[in-house]
């Protein structure tokens, strides 16, 4: 059974893991990355998120599922404060990132967005070369040395599993790539600033099945280095790639548990109905 300890604004989850060599139990500990406490959010008079309490652990893939309009995308856009670009938005409650309240007036949003990258629903490469797409963030942060930029480009493209497809065309416009390749370029652009967390808002919804599979494989490959939060309408995708799943319904977290538990034995009837396709 998992044990959870709260220490210095961090949740340390101890997970028993069986060592296959000698069948002993090895304990792994993961710190909390995001802790959402009593979060409410309104678009004008519309109460979009209601008393959200959710903990995201490091080096895991957390899937956010639920029907359209339930608050999934709104929630992850609060995690990097992008939601504040909507003038009518107001919030109450708190979101702690690594123990610091991101809504605190002294908290710099620039720092947050350096640590928390985002990949959107549709691939959105800049109308620039592949090389300039990847180096855009590092250059903004003051890196101008060509040798260092070259290293960042290679490392990021390899991290996004697209180096071999792009290494001979770095100076070509990223718009010349396929949709799936463009999305992996966007992931590489995100990796270039070495984030702590990657937010993904339905990153494969505009992709064909083969490109979707490549992105899913990539997510599995990089989760040991990053904490990944992914919004998806695809139940099979959530089941395939995530460690934890949160089911949002009408602006509340209806259920949150391990993905295996959510998909095999959910505690709530509405969760079971949604996953089995009876609504949504």
Comma- or semicolon-separated keywords:
single chain; 280 residues; alpha/beta; six-stranded mixed sheet; 10 helices; globular
Backbone shape: globular
Q: How many individual helices?
A: 10
Stretches with pLDDT under 50, minimum 5 residues: 1-27
Biggest sheet: strand arrangement: 9-10-11-6-12-13
What's the rounded overall pLDDT mean? Answer: 89
Work out the strand percent. Answer: 25-35%
User: H/E element string?
Assistant: EEEEEEHEEHEHHHHEHEHEEHH
Please give the share of residues in helix: 25-40%
Main pleated sheet: 6 strands, mixed
Structural class call reads alpha/beta
- CA-CA gap between termini: 33 Å
**Quick one: how many beta strands?**
13
The gyration radius over C-alpha positions equals 19 Å
């Amino acid at each position: 059974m998992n044990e959870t300890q709260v220490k210095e604004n961090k949740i340390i989850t101890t997970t028993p893991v069986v060592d296959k060599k000698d069948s002993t139990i090895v304990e792994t500990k993961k710190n909390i990355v995001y802790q959402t406490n009593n979060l409410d959010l309104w678009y004008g008079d519309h109460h979009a998120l209601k008393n959200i309490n959710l903990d995201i652990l490091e080096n895991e893939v957390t899937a956010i599922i639920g029907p359209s309009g339930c608050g999934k995308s709104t929630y992850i856009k609060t995690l990097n404060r992008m939601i504040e670009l909507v003038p009518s938005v107001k919030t109450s409650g708190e979101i702690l990132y690594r123990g610091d309240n991101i809504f605190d007036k002294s908290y710099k949003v620039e720092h947050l967005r350096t640590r928390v990258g985002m990949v959107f629903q549709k691939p959105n490469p800049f109308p620039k070369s592949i090389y300039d797409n990847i180096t855009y963030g590092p250059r903004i942060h003051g890196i101008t040395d060509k040798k260092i930029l070259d290293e960042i480009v290679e490392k990021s493209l390899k991290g996004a599993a697209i180096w071999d497809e792009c290494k001979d065309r770095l100076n070509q416009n990223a718009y010349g790539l396929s949709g799936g390749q463009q999305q992996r370029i966007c992931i590489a652009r995100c990796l270039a600033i070495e984030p702590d967390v990657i937010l993904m808002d339905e990153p494969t919804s505009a992709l064909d099945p083969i490109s979707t599979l490549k992105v899913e494989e990539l997510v599995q490959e990089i989760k040991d280095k990053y904490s990944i939060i992914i919004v998806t309408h695809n139940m099979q995708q959530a089941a395939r790639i995530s460690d934890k799943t949160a089911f949002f319904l009408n602006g509340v977290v209806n259920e949150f548990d391990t993905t295996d538990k959510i998909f095999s034995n959910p505690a709530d009837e509405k969760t079971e109905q949604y996953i089995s396709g009876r609504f949504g």
